[in-house]
Amino acid sequence: MLSLLLFAVGALAHQNFHQFWVNGVSPGYQTCIRMPPSNNPVTNVQSNDITCNVNGNIVPSSVAVCSAKAGDTIKVQWDSSTHPGPITHFLYGPVSNAQQATGVGSWFKINELDYTNGEWANQVMEAQNMTYEFKLPAKLPSGDYLLRSEMEALHASQTIDQTQFYIGCAQLRITGSGSSCSPKIQLPGAYKDTDPNIYIPNFYYGFDPTTFTAPGGPVATCT
How far is CA 99 from CA 12, 56, 87, 89, 90, in A? Predict the structure, then answer.
């Protein structure tokens, strides 16, 4: 009975990325987002699913491409979750056509929220209707991009291959005047199941969350 209860609680905490706003305006619910077939997490960090979730690499994508400009404010909204962990955002591109982009390859991190003022990112988001705001880099080359929103759930991080990644990718056409962004990482490849921000054996017993930095390296500099 207890195991069934724990399974039910865990399933209820599963989540997806459903909607975003550009400078306060949303294109619509699940518009321009590659939606996965379920709200289950990705746990195999070496699979292609770590890029844009299950079926997120199938091209051509039938999902629309939404417009934005470098420096715009993006707000994302996720399903509610009680699982502790960070939220991070990455870009893949520029490419000529986001609908043809698999997402397998080079990404760069543009924003992250980890543990701040005694709260994990999911707690901060819960207080604001499960939304989170950040800005696109002010300098970005014009082109199509995949915007990858990732929530890492650390409640089971004491066991290798049990940390949960919830991922959604939006398709954007960004107008900008930059030249390049670095550093870049490879997905799959950059995440390892034994990385100290993925496998945390003492998460509930002595781990200091103020030392935590989300996977994916530092936030990129765009020029």
Answer: 31, 11, 24, 19, 17
Positive or negative, the CA dihedral 21, 22, 24, 26 is negative
**Position 12 confidence tier, pLDDT thresholds 50, 70, 90:** low
Q: Which residues contact 204 (CB under 8 A, 6 or more apart)?
A: 158
- Token pair for 53: 């979730």
Helices (H), 21-167: 49-52, 121-126
**Chain segment 182-219, per-residue pLDDT in tens:** 999 999 999 999 999 999 999 999 999 999 999 999 99
Least Cα distance to 107 among 24, 32, 50, 31 occurs for 50
The reported pLDDT for the residue numbered 13 is 72
Q: Tokens 């399903």: give the residue.
A: 79
Residue at token pair 């759930």: 153
C-alpha span between 63 and 196 (Å, rounded): 35
Helix and strand totals (H; E) in the chain: 3, 14
